[in-house]
Amino acid sequence: MNKQTGFTLIELLVVVLIIGILAAVALPQYEKAVTKARFTEAIINLKTIKQAKDVYILSGGDNPDLDELDISVPTETENFTFYSADPWNGYCGPTAAYKKEKVCLCYYEATPNQGGCNGTLVLSQNQSSHPADRPASFDYAKLLNIPENDECACY
């Protein structure tokens, strides 16, 4: 007798189906994790800029540009462009513009004080003044657990 070994077509189809289901679940989660990492980098840079700006203002300076601050934060990364102030926000906090989609991060304070900015980190999506062409592909505020507020202006 001649015994054949191997897998049947049905068994192979089941394996391919299982791999397809796993890929369909894993890829969106991977994309969200990568996006969170990109925005976390931007948030860390924004906090650094905000703290340096507060120190600069408290030591008697006026609204500084990024190059006037004693920090080593780039004005531009692969994914974000950073500004030291948001003119629509009373020059309160620094702003980060996401290059790929219309998303801005900033520190917003309804009534900025003279001794720096006590504002909270907020996110704006799909503003017409944003330099990017693509609208936001999903709800970044929900993904990052940051309040959404249309007061940020990326210019």
Describe this structure as you would to a colleague:
The mean pLDDT is 81. Strand 2 and strand 3 form a beta hairpin. With 155 residues, the protein is α+β, with helices and mostly antiparallel strands. It has one domain.
Portion of residues in beta strands equals 5-15%
Rg (CA only): 23 Å
Number of helices: 2
Query: Any idea how many domains?
Result: 1
- Return the average pLDDT rounded to an integer: 81
End-to-end distance = 79 Å
The H/E string reads HEEEEH
* Overall strand count: 4
Structural class: alpha+beta
Strand order of the largest sheet: 1-2-3-4
Shape: elongated
The level of helicity is: 25-40%
Main β-sheet description: 4 strands, antiparallel
Low-confidence stretches are: none
Question: What is the topology?
Answer:
Layout: H1 9-58, E1 80-83, E2 95-98, E3 103-108, E4 120-125, H2 140-144
Antiparallel strand pairs: 1-2, 2-3, 3-4
Write a short abstract of this structure.
With 155 residues, the protein is an alpha+beta fold.
Based on the model shown, name its key terms.
35% helix; 4 strands; alpha+beta; single chain
